Amino acid sequence: MIEPERVEAQNTTLLAGHEADLEAVAACLERRGIDAEVVIGALQAFSAAAPSWALGTGGTRFGRFPTGGEPRTLEEKLEDVAAINAVTGATRSVSLHVPWDLPRDPGAIRERAASLGLAIDAMNSNTFQDNPETTQDGKVSFKHGSFANPDPAVREAAVAHNTAVIDLGVELGSRAITIWLADGINHPGQADLRRQFERVLEGLREVYAHLPPDWELYTEHKPFEPAFYATVNADWGSSLLLAQGLGPQAKCLVDLGHHLPNANIEQIVARLAMVDRLGGFHFNDSKYGDDDLTVGSIDPYQLFLIVRELVAYGGGRMPELAYMIDQSCNVKDPLEDIAQSTVALQHAVGQALLVDGTALAVAQDEGDAAMGEAILQRAFRFDVGPLAAEARRRNGAAIDPVGALRGVGYRRARIAERGAAAVATGL
Amino acid sequence: MIEPERVEAQNTTLLAGHEADLEAVAACLERRGIDAEVVIGALQAFSAAAPSWALGTGGTRFGRFPTGGEPRTLEEKLEDVAAINAVTGATRSVSLHVPWDLPRDPGAIRERAASLGLAIDAMNSNTFQDNPETTQDGKVSFKHGSFANPDPAVREAAVAHNTAVIDLGVELGSRAITIWLADGINHPGQADLRRQFERVLEGLREVYAHLPPDWELYTEHKPFEPAFYATVNADWGSSLLLAQGLGPQAKCLVDLGHHLPNANIEQIVARLAMVDRLGGFHFNDSKYGDDDLTVGSIDPYQLFLIVRELVAYGGGRMPELAYMIDQSCNVKDPLEDIAQSTVALQHAVGQALLVDGTALAVAQDEGDAAMGEAILQRAFRFDVGPLAAEARRRNGAAIDPVGALRGVGYRRARIAERGAAAVATGL
Amino acid sequence: MIEPERVEAQNTTLLAGHEADLEAVAACLERRGIDAEVVIGALQAFSAAAPSWALGTGGTRFGRFPTGGEPRTLEEKLEDVAAINAVTGATRSVSLHVPWDLPRDPGAIRERAASLGLAIDAMNSNTFQDNPETTQDGKVSFKHGSFANPDPAVREAAVAHNTAVIDLGVELGSRAITIWLADGINHPGQADLRRQFERVLEGLREVYAHLPPDWELYTEHKPFEPAFYATVNADWGSSLLLAQGLGPQAKCLVDLGHHLPNANIEQIVARLAMVDRLGGFHFNDSKYGDDDLTVGSIDPYQLFLIVRELVAYGGGRMPELAYMIDQSCNVKDPLEDIAQSTVALQHAVGQALLVDGTALAVAQDEGDAAMGEAILQRAFRFDVGPLAAEARRRNGAAIDPVGALRGVGYRRARIAERGAAAVATGL
Amino acid sequence: MIEPERVEAQNTTLLAGHEADLEAVAACLERRGIDAEVVIGALQAFSAAAPSWALGTGGTRFGRFPTGGEPRTLEEKLEDVAAINAVTGATRSVSLHVPWDLPRDPGAIRERAASLGLAIDAMNSNTFQDNPETTQDGKVSFKHGSFANPDPAVREAAVAHNTAVIDLGVELGSRAITIWLADGINHPGQADLRRQFERVLEGLREVYAHLPPDWELYTEHKPFEPAFYATVNADWGSSLLLAQGLGPQAKCLVDLGHHLPNANIEQIVARLAMVDRLGGFHFNDSKYGDDDLTVGSIDPYQLFLIVRELVAYGGGRMPELAYMIDQSCNVKDPLEDIAQSTVALQHAVGQALLVDGTALAVAQDEGDAAMGEAILQRAFRFDVGPLAAEARRRNGAAIDPVGALRGVGYRRARIAERGAAAVATGL
User: Fold this and answer.
1) Which residue spans adopt a coiled-coil conformation according to this UniProt entry (chains A, B, C, D) (predicted)?
2) Closest approach of chain C CAs to the CA of B402, in angstroms?
């Protein structure tokens, strides 16, 4: 546990510089007619869930190089998320992945999370692997698909797993299930593209029917990996067709790494928002495919443009969606990596809030492309770092989250406690 | 004009070899339990429209190198299409582009086309350029968009142009309008992504309201070019939203070059077919963007897979959709290029018809990926050339279309008639 | 002409705010141990050439929407560049394109440029179009390539044109020639890939032999457009092979838009720098292909990473290379667009100079990916706007370049002078 | 073991049909002036190595679904390769991967391979995982790179491993080592791009110095995965720089899946061949990234164009390079998958040999793009299936390789022998 006073101690040496920076930045904003306090307040309110499966070192099919001290149990995962939240103040929930996170006593987990200041975010089901719990001890296999499988017994297993995840989520206090399906094919001819989609929709309807009235179901599209020729829920158009085929509690979740090269993701976000089918986000960044890199680490301007669409959808503030950071921390300490992602999100939210919407609308109405672009860039180029740091500080967290994690020796202590060879479940 | 007897004369020297090849191929098919006559018949029935704007040499922003003898009038364009049809027997209609093809006397054009054996296919409107006819002699401009323009006067001009194109099409005997919009932006902030879409939908609704009851309206999506940051109708999801927002006479048209890198086009085709919103095709091939190359010249297997989805949608035969070849003939003689594209389509249709659907369904139900793939490949690897040649021959056309065009000296005669410097309208 | 006092007048109302911002920013940097004066000085020293062909409105094959008041002559182009320089203070040279810019009296042009405070940067030849001057009044054509053409007469014309451009450049005071070739093919089989390369190298050797001893020759690669299947100088590997085959005065020029999707351009820059074959840059930004958008407008972090590689190559400062802005201004006023690009470059240079190289090296040696990344991001996130503005101001230019262009009514005056229908040569 | 007579028995029922097809095809070729026997002979001579690591089911980071009966030892791997060769007659060598394939008694393995009719192809080292044998029982780690690692001890371990692989290869009768490095970074700033390259070159020089005089060393480039921001040997340009920096025994190996989207691979092949640095191939196919799918299963025309460049390089025949099939068999039986890949290669080689090189050269010299393309397509569209089948039959293998594997019950027998849970080493 990272107690508030230890974080505060880490802040001490940085405080004077931070306050000077903050004052300078606030004065700059004041000259632009912007109240820094409003931005700081909005940043304090923002939070993105941590994924339980990214607390251990991630890997590729070529290998994995563990960090040491990785969480061995769901309880230890909660502790790690609490540690991230202790330094960011913006990681106030955790998203679980079943069966990787299958608690024996859901009530106890819920209480433990609450005691750590954490809520349980959207639940995630897993039909891309064979696990005793999901494939009935090997009686069926998801090798050739789950919901899209030609074998009805497999499809039933997929439905049963998802409804079980919902039931578990209810006990944990979650309010949503995110369904990412690996269903797809590697070879032309391997399956009928249309029948695959119809089966998936049919199966999801059974899951949807099981949804409590205050829950939402998110369909998450992805063009490829692990399927390398055709994926059933490959793009936002397919995801939307699924949501339309299910009902009003079904929405689409956008993972920033699940797009073809050159896709305009902010426009996809605007489209789904327009038809009120935007449910949530898996934030990360990527250069090639679903690289699952640190949020904002490859293209921070794109992140800004996406968040600005969110703020536009929210009428000037971040709308209440299911925000989650979804990355694979292959070479960094996972906790540091998620903290860096959270900070990057805070920057993007802060920048998006600085956009002068009124002036932008005028420029757009006048076809003044140079000015429209300049208005966005002016917000993006502004250094919101001190505002984000202040929001963290006021939330009891760290001016410098990674520095604080190192300063308190969190990883070192975990290696001592959990062992250098401890390996977490996940990807 | 290329009279049938001149084509027949071109076939003479090839006939013996062709017949031997055909006999061999038919015998091979018979050993597989397939009646070559059925395939030949289906190929005889197939036709794809020629685009009036690709009869001259195409170009890029970097330049254009005219061929000589290009058609100077719509009448001459019809003659060129008739020449292509004379050698392919599968180019029995032409798709016009207004105002590039704005006939003074539509009735005369309709008659002239009929006398050449040509029907008028889908009409194409043009709001990506300022033309006196469409932008009211310079009173408005499409520089900042047509339907998506913030200026209502421009939007009205866009509607007026499209309804005028429909009216013209009615006189010409057309039954559909294809609307490809350049609307989009080059710079983040230049316009509001959502408002742009809403305006486009609003404008298209006015056009749709003008549609005769036996007409269809096709929305054609494209991710980029000429807009380089965000295009309003960028992908099949957007195109589908437009069609859904219009009504049952609205369908989506797929141009094979209008996709992001690595897109699975055959799956997009299957999706649109599934929801009965697949209206037509602009056939071409590409390696990088909207390269508008000869059909099947870069990835003939992809073409085969797309056509197979069509045959599946058509219940074992090519469904009645608006098929058109849409290419830019930059370095080949345009007529030869379109003829080669037509032949490539004939090959793909022939191969698709050879797929053993029953065996494929069995393999797919058994999750037998190796066999499913092998069944498709067996059809693709078969040389349907002699079948396509025979279909052409029976339609009064050429065994070797390009050879026939050269043999009768069509281009040479056109240069003599129209001049070496004649340049056609178009891209 | 935009006289210094008119720019100063534009600065007046912004001055107080600018000075406050500058003071705040300098104090922030001081807290980080960085002297703002050093950065400002480096920014004052930086300049990038303007391309003579982007002073008019750009277009695509689908159309072009002129701005009005475009320069009709080379003299007017020089005036426009001087106007850009008047507001940016960092556009102190112009790059010409022959035969679009073929002065009758080179000496007079050189003098005129000098009187406007402009130098003549790298010369650009043009063998991607047929022009009377280059293709000998139609005796030859570059339709099927220039240096790569199978016809020796065409290859000779290409050599002759390039040597003529060098001769002209010598008169104008230039010191380099940039050779971008459209040579390539649209269709597999159209040409022999290897022979094409060998011919290009052979032709370039003749051009290279004509090079004055103090000149450099830059080969500029591009994967596609206008060739859509294979381009001879398609990638940096090919460009390097050409440079290696020519000699030490041959270097490679990198256009930021001339790469396949997802290419790591900063690594390419590092590679060419490593072998001392990095000659120059064509700066722009793009999302899909060679979109030629405003520098830094799509991915400013990538621009920063590229410039940082330059600073690393320069041993802590920008190396002396041939920097040019190369864009196509389709929807913005071209002068405003180039000014915005210049500002974006100033930002990137400023940010790159803020990188703590010593700390970075330590982090890299320790395999501390989180810290290495954080050090770069810290520099990138800093708002160097006031530093760049101050550098411009000290160079006699504008705090707000676009605002100043508008404030002095430059375009309005040009339309009055040159006419609304004046259209510049170029793309 | 699949004895020749069992294969022959499988051929029996297909023989009559095959002979009729073959006769028909040969007659068609005769009409084109081509001797089918020459093609069959060339196909008999062709062989591509099987990779030892693809004999078990492949997977992704999301999971792996074993086939059952996978080889547990190197000896069993050799048996599986022999089985593939029994049905294809074109898999006469195997490529090993160390330390996955670390024989205790190399001499015995060499003998066993020889007794199965197999040679040992290029050796593959592995520095992308930590293995007790390569990372000295955990004393060092390749987490942050091998040759590119800032830690000299790690670099030494990388050199030591590679020289050990060469030593082992000498004992096994191999003649080459293929070095694919995962070295690269996930995060901008994680390492110095230039220093990484220099260290890799430095390390490879030590390995190169260890090379026996009759050996070759192949550098294999790949743009991404497992590194997701920058890979040291990312492209053919980098690979060529490495080979140039090593010496004449160093060549570049091209894996068909190791390219950015839209790359023209056949041109890369032509470039490396031109400078005599083309060493070998890892054949597979892909749609999105390094998908490692069945050869020719996504884009068979591209495969044909690549093989045609090889035949051009070989002066009309396949040159003697290190050909290997490198795929990941995730959903098919690996042996069937490799057999299908081998057949696809035979098709491509057969088609490439049918290209009329003389006519092609004429068309190219005349700038006749339509004819140049048509000549290639004519060869590609020809059904060389019966020729490939005959080549296999004459080599004692199967007319229908997959059918034969199934017919003899190879997998069933292996599951009985090795168990349903046997899992092979590899990816």
Assistant:
1) none
2) 16
